Amino acid sequence: MLKWILLGLGLAFAYWWLVLKKKHDQEKALEPRSAPPSQLKPKRMVSCSYCDLHLPEDDAIAWDGRYYCCADHRDNLSQKGWWGRAQWRASPNFDERPASIKPDLVVIHHISLPPGQFGRDRIIDFFQNKLDARTHPYFEQIAHQKVSSHFLIDRDGQVIQLVSVHKRAWHAGASQFFERERCNDFSIGIELIGDGESAFTNEQYTALAQLIDFLAKNFSNLQFAGHSDIAPDRKTDPGKSFDWARIQRLANLSKEQLPFGVEVR
Ligand SMILES: [Zn+2]
Ligand SMILES: [Zn+2]
Fold this sequence. Notes:
Blueprint lengths: L1 H29 L14 E3 L6 E3 L4 E3 L2 E3 L2 H5 L11 E2 L5 E3 L8 E7 L9 H7 L9 H6 L8 E3 L5 E3 L5 E3 L6 E2 L2 E2 L5 E7 L8 H17 L4 E4 H4 L13 H7 L15
Parallel strand pairs: 5-9, 7-13, 7-14, 8-13
Antiparallel strand pairs: 1-2, 3-4, 6-10, 8-9, 11-12
Bound molecules: zinc ion (ZN) (2 copies).
The site of one zinc ion (ZN) has 4 residues, from loops.
C-alpha cells in the first residue's frame, strides 16, 4: 500500500515540477534580452598628454585632439616643453639650444600673410614649410625661408605653439640683446597676428599676458624686447601699434624686465 502512495506522490511531484519549469521558461522568453558581455562597448582608453596616465575617454579633459587627466596637467608645461593650453602645430624649423642655456628673453613680433591679411592658416603653413608659393606673389619671395616661432597669438586670442620652449626656434635672425648676440639661443619668440598698422586686439593682449604669466612660472628672470629692439637695422616689429605700457600693466612686469622701456616705437 505504502508503495502505491509513494509512487502517487512521486508522480504528483514530477507533474508539479514540469508545470513550474514550463511557466519559468515562458516568463524567461518574454524578458528583454540583454546583450552578452562580449558585445558591451568597451570604454575607450586615452592617455594624459602630460603624465601618460591611462584613463577612460569619458573621464579625461579633451582639448585640441589631446587628453588630460586634470586641468592642472593641461595648464602646465610638459616635460618636452609644450603648453597644454595652446593648440599644437609643430614646426620642423628648430634645433637645440646651446648646452645649459635656459631662455631668459622673450621677443615680441608681429606677422601677417599675405601682409595685411589676418588669417592664421598661411602663417602656420609658412612655419611648417608648406606655404604654396603659387598662391600669392609675396609668397614667392618667402616660401623658401625656414623660420618659426615658439608661439603665435591669433586675433581672437587663441595661442598656437609651434616649437618646444626647450628648443631653439628660428625667429630672431641676426640680432643682439645688449652685449649678447644670436638671440635665438636664449629667447622665446612670440608672434602676434597683425600688420604693424592696425591695433592689436584686446583678446591678443589678454592672451599675451596669460602666456607671459605661464612663461614666468617656468623661467626665472625673463626680460622682454621687440624684434626691432634686437635687430634695429632690419626689423620694425611689433611696431608702433604695440602698446608696451598695456602689456606691462596686464602682465605685471617690472621696469627691469622691459629694458627698452614702454614708449611706443
Ligand atoms: Zn596627467
Ligand atoms: Zn619679427
